[in-house]
Each structure stands twice: as C-alpha cells, then as structure tokens.
Amino acid sequence: MESLLNLLYIYILIINVLGFSLMRRDKKKAQRHEYRIKERTLWTVAIIGGSIGSYIAMKVYRHKTKHRLFAMGFPFLVIVHSFLFIWVNQGI
C-alpha cells in the first residue's frame, strides 16, 4: 500500500509541474501572438490533478486571471484536490 501512495505522490508532482508548464507556455505564446494551447487542455490537466500547479502559474504569470471561469474554477479545484489528498492520506 505504501508503494501505491508513493506512486500517487509522484503522479501529483508530475501533473502539477505539467499544469504549471502549460500555463507558462500558453502565456508566452499569447505574448508572441502564436497559436495557443486549447483551454480544454489546460482544464483537463487541472481536473486530473494539476490544479495547484496551474493555479500557481496563473498567479505567477498573471495568465487567465481575467477569465472568470479560470479565476474561480482553478481555486475550487485546488480545494477539492486538497481535500481528496487529505482524505487519501487519512485512509492509508
């Protein structure tokens, strides 16, 4: 069971680094007026566990902060994922 928990930690780390990286890359593309990363992709990464990294990048790079859905949705996902993480850690 401990190895499963370790895999979960690694997954959470990787998906949040990915979320952060995608938001950073999309911001850079926006500044250069290049083809952007689809919002669906940003949301998918956030929903499957990358909400913390995505939210941190949103604040650091001031990206998507005026989009109400992102500004409210990412913090909501951070809360949900935090509760799930605590729940999993309590159960094991």
How are the SSEs ordered, and which strands pair?
Elements: H1 2-31, H2 39-60, H3 68-91
Helix pairs in contact: 1-2, 2-3
Q: How does this structure look, described?
A:
With 92 residues, the protein is an all-alpha fold. It has one domain (2-91). The protein is built from three helices and no strands. The protein has helices at 2-31, 39-60, 68-91. The chain is elongated and about 45 Å long. The termini are close together.
Q: What are the salient characteristics of this protein?
A:
92 residues; mainly alpha; 0% strand
Give the gist of this structure.
This protein is mostly helical and 92 residues long.
Indicate the radius of gyration in whole angstroms.
14 Å
Number of E-state strands:
0
In this structure, how is the largest beta sheet organized? none
Question: Looking at the structure, what is the overall shape?
Answer: elongated
Low-confidence stretches: none
| Amount of beta strand | under 5%
List the total number of helices.
Answer: 3
Span between termini: 8 Å
Q: Mean pLDDT, rounded to whole units?
A: 94
The string of secondary-structure elements, in order, is HHH
- Number of individual domains: 1
Structural class: mainly alpha
Q: What level of helicity do the residues show?
A: over 70%
